[in-house]
Amino acid sequence: MQTSNLEATRQSKLGMVLRVTSGNFLEQFDFFLFGFYATQIAAVFFPASNEFASLMMTFAVFGAGFLMRPLGAVILGAYIDDVGRRKGLIVTLAIMASGTVLIVLVPGYASIGLWAPALVLLGRLLQGFSAGAEMGGVSVYLAEMATPGRRGFYASWQSASQQVAIVAAAAIGYALNQLIPPQDLAQWGWRIPFAIGCVIIPFIFLLRRRLEETAEFAQRTQRVTMRQVMRGLANNAGTVIAGGLMVALTTTAFYLITVYAPTFGKSVLKLSTGDA
């Protein structure tokens, strides 16, 4: 009897891990795709006489999403602390999904002019804003639902889901490169992976809606207010800055490998998308 109860608990925990990390998977999936297809996006939304200038404008929009992360972490993080992990993570998913759908549906510069890059920028800002709270919110949820003595193991699934997303995005990109001619890939084929992300959004919403609130949060008698959050940031400014710089270091190295290297291979070394 005790063995069956233990097995049921393990299956329940596994289901919770899959449901909460599904949104984190989508967030990293979309972030990676935007960088991976930077050269195609540059040609569609940021045409310029100089290819380098076009690419730099694309990466500026890509970087704008990262600038929104701290803001999203503070605002949406405080919201998650106030209303609960489950409700808060559903909101972050909704914002992220809005940005993803917007990028997929926006016509190119040739069709609507400056509205095209402006709407793509808006989509990236929405994605970055939600990502700021998505990663932290998922990590907190995993830590709070963990069995005693295994918080580190459970919280590590936040990062693991991101790596799975990158592998999935790269595999889809490689498959498309083999199936679609380069000129078609540059015009419309790059939208297919984003569209795949849009297709799975309803399923991720369904998974998130089935999340249960963590017992640790439900047992709290006091809620953290935005004023308390800001006071905590101010009182620990040195630690916050040091932590931010450490994250910036690892993030820079990560995106140099996963985003810049493929773009460099395509634009400078003239490699195919698959080879890059």
UniProtKB/TrEMBL annotation:
Any GO MF annotation of the entry = symporter activity
Query: Which keywords are on file for this protein?
Result: Cell membrane, Membrane, Symport, Transmembrane, Transmembrane helix, Transport
Among PROSITE patterns, the record links this protein to: MFS (PS50850), SUGAR_TRANSPORT_2 (PS00217)
* Highest taxon of source: Bacteria
User: Where is it mostly found?
Assistant: membrane
Q: Where do the TM regions start and end?
A: 29-46, 52-76, 88-112, 118-142, 154-176, 188-207, 233-257
| GO cellular component: a single term | plasma membrane
The places in or outside the cell where this protein is found are: Cell membrane
Name of the protein this chain belongs to? Major facilitator superfamily (MFS) profile domain-containing protein
